[in-house]
Specification:
heterodimer, A: 151 residues, Beta Polymerase, domain 2, five-stranded mixed sheet, two-stranded parallel sheet, B: alpha+beta, Cytochrome-c3 Hydrogenase, chain B
């Protein structure tokens, strides 16, 4: 499917989503509440079959914290980008997609470690690189006087 | 005095947890594996990483785009040139710069030389992990020849920093073509020796065939790419699927095997060395004339937006995801490193095998730790 067909296909699953045709890939902004459901359908529906989560990145947008999922279908070779964000910076929580793509287990641990986003239903959510005494370094408001990191 | 509990005969049903690493010769770097054992059998593996976490993604947010390539060198230092290429291609794509053919061809030759020396080093270490010390000397002897070619043209041997946004740092050395052709001629004779030494060895077969099987479905689900993924039949070669630089104009096969065990991963890499030599031979006599770099603005600012570039390093798919807010520094850079995903599959494929097999499986994944930790 090309970008336009993909956009219509995603609209047929969930109608009121913000779909943007990016320069490279189709970008879909998804509310956190329906993210897991949409991801599961994109993985399982016969026409889509997004079976390869090739990138999962956490982003600090300033006021919000978000996660970006790059999905590809190894069968049809089409790509879609899902974006979700939460405005809660104190206890941000999103749904885990580990049960859909197993690679998410490590990637979500990395996001939790560096940005502090918790993932619901993650099998083993521990810090990955740093120990518990650290803050969340990839946040934009992270300050570390010793290592000269300022806002 | 307090009475101490007397420990009697060990309970055979008990689980025994040992640390493999962080300083262990078979982990090829500071990787710690927490291995639960039952007797000699591996029950589960928990990788503990982060010993050399250097925060490259955070550092990138405060430096300019031409400076980033000096950090990506240090990620996967064995395929440093290809890492740099990923960043450069992404910046050039964002700025819509037209890159002359000469640069594309030289980049492709350099990438394939990098892949060759990476696989040579892997072969050397893999042989050594399984007890064939001679492999180490053979592999490193031949790798030196490629590093010498790099040194002559780039100045550096491993951390080459030869790419820059807009082209290359300097033109190729006048001896470059001659020496590469000499090397290919030499290595075509030497590579069958690798097979004689290790590929047909009965002990090697016993230790690698049927060990650490990974199915295609699991490879896709765990995001395992590169030779490891292709040994399981997962067609994931970015050079074929999304050709960049000069890969669109050369003839080469994507090596695919279906067994998915340690031996298949070994054979995939050996076959890839032959393919790399084919690619270099097609290009080395046809380097077009032209400039070696495009004139770029002194301060590179990417237009606001998001850019993603995939390349095929020696270990798998490297993705560079840049979010730009229009400044001279990126807003956020994410490196999707191949080794990070490849490591995550270790528990899945090595559970149930013996601890000696864990060394073989770990070696066949070809992990580079700075690429995992970043």
């Amino acid at each position: 499917m090309d970008k336009i067909q993909l956009g219509e296909f995603i609209k047929s699953i969930a109608s009121d989503l913000e779909i943007k045709e990016g320069k490279q890939y189709l970008e879909v902004t998804v509310p956190p509440a329906i993210l897991h459901d949409l991801a599961k359908q994109l993985r399982e529906k016969e026409e889509a079959q997004f079976d390869f989560l090739f990138c999962l990145s956490g982003v600090d947008y300033g006021s919000d914290l978000g996660v970006v999922y790059h999905l590809r279908s190894t069968l049809y070779d089409h790509v879609v980008v899902l974006k979700t964000r939460t405005s809660d910076r104190e206890r941000p929580q999103l749904a885990s997609v580990t049960d859909i793509w197993q690679t998410a287990e490590f990637h979500e641990r990395e996001v939790f470690d560096l940005l502090g986003i918790r993932f619901k239903n993650h099998p083993d959510l521990r810090r990955l690189f740093l120990d518990n005494s650290w803050g969340f370094p990839l946040r934009k408001d992270y300050v570390d006087d010793i290592n000269i990191v300022y806002k | 005095m307090e009475e101490k509990e007397i420990i009697t005969a060990p309970d055979v049903e008990q689980e025994y947890v040992i640390n493999m690493g962080p300083q262990h010769p078979s982990t090829h770097g500071v990787l710690r594996l927490l291995v639960s054992l039952k007797g000699e059998k591996v029950k589960s593996i928990q990788p503990h990483i982060g010993y050399i976490h250097s925060g490259i993604e955070k550092m990138c947010e405060s430096i300019t785009y031409p400076q980033i390539i000096h950090l990506t060198d240090r990620m996967d230092y064995i395929s440093a040139h290809i890492n740099n290429e990923a960043v450069c291609l992404n910046v050039e794509k964002a700025l819509e710069v037209d890159i002359p053919d000469r640069i594309k061809v030289i980049r492709t030759i350099m990438s394939e030389l990098t892949r060759l020396q990476s696989h040579q080093l892997w072969w050397a270490c893999f042989g050594m992990d399984l007890g064939g010390l001679t492999c180490f000397f053979y592999g490193l002897r031949d790798r030196e020849k490629i590093l010498d070619i790099f040194e002559e043209t780039c100045g550096g041997r491993m951390i080459v920093s030869y790419n820059c946004p807009g082209g290359l740092m300097y033109d190729i050395h006048p001896n470059f073509q001659k020496r590469v052709k000499e090397f290919i001629k030499y290595f075509r004779k030497i590579l069958p020796e690798y097979d004689q030494l290790l590929t047909g060895n009965v002990i090697f077969h016993e230790r690698s065939k049927g060990i650490g099987k990974l199915t295609k479905e699991d490879a896709i689900s765990f995001g395992v790419t590169g030779p490891t993924g292709r040994a399981s039949g997962f067609s994931c070669d970015v050079r074929k699927h999304e050709p960049y630089s000069a890969y669109g104009r050369v003839q080469f096969k994507e090596i695919l095997h279906t067994e998915g065990d340690t031996f298949a991963r070994y054979v995939t890499r050996i076959d890839e060395m032959w393919e790399s030599m084919n690619i270099i031979e097609q290009l080395i006599d046809n380097i077009p004339e032209g400039p070696y770099a495009v004139k770029m603005k002194p301060i590179i600012k990417l237009p606001e937006g998001e850019y993603y570039q995939r390349v095929e390093t020696a270990r798998g798919e490297l993705g560079v995801y840049i979010i730009s807010d229009g400044n001279k520094n990126p807003y956020r850079v994410k490196f999707r490193s191949p080794n990070f995903s490849n490591l995550s599959v270790l528990n899945h494929i090595a559970s149930g095998f013996k601890i000696a097999d864990l060394v073989a499986i770990g070696g066949s994944l070809d992990l580079i730790i700075p690429d995992i930790d970043r």
